[in-house]
Amino acid sequence: MRSLPNLFLIGPMGAGKSTIGRLLAAELQREFLDSDHQIEGRCGANIPWIFDVEGEQGFRDRETAMLDELTQRSEVVMATGGGAVMREVNRQLLRERGTVIYLATTVEQQIRRTSRDRNRPLLQNANPEQVLRELFAIRDPLYRATADVVVRTDRRGPRSVVGDILRRVSRLAEPLGDSSPLSHQR
């Protein structure tokens, strides 16, 4: 499986991108990167602080620069922030430099997984469920348009999801064999 391209995980907050990404990278013996953590490390500040000081636009500018840098590496598994797909340039970087896997989940699952997380600036309001539903309506079509593979994560353990990803991505990487209809058209 070393011949696989970079694997980039996209999806909403709470889909399991970081957890699944770490397991996937370990299985493939690859470096795991989390674009949000890389931004925090570079800035020396957490994402809520960046949002407070620079606004969402400032954070998104940092995110684009970080994605451009990280997607140029080889043999990595990378989890992106939930909003990375909001910019066309980000979607293009991901599509051109690796295989993109959309970890799809329901809003209900997101609520369960993010309810106590104070490190999510977009959810720090009176009605996080409404925010998640609005984000889903906007972002789901972008995730789907960007992804090479869509994998559901609801009610599944991370290892099961990793196995599913490995099976599906390895099929994408397989060369056409003699059983291909094209090979019989000599």
TrEMBL record:
InterPro entries, per database record: AAA+_ATPase, P-loop_NTPase, Shikimate/glucono_kinase, Shikimate_kinase/TSH1, Shikimate_kinase_CS
Primary localization: cytoplasm
Localization per Swiss-Prot or TrEMBL: Cytoplasm
Cofactor note: Binds 1 Mg(2+) ion per subunit.
Positions with a binding annotation for substrate: D36, R60, G82, R139
Catalysed transformations (reactions): shikimate + ATP = 3-phosphoshikimate + ADP + H(+)
Protein name, UniProt field: Shikimate kinase
Organism for this UniProt entry: Salinicola acroporae
Upper taxonomic lineage: Bacteria, Pseudomonadati, Pseudomonadota, Gammaproteobacteria, Oceanospirillales
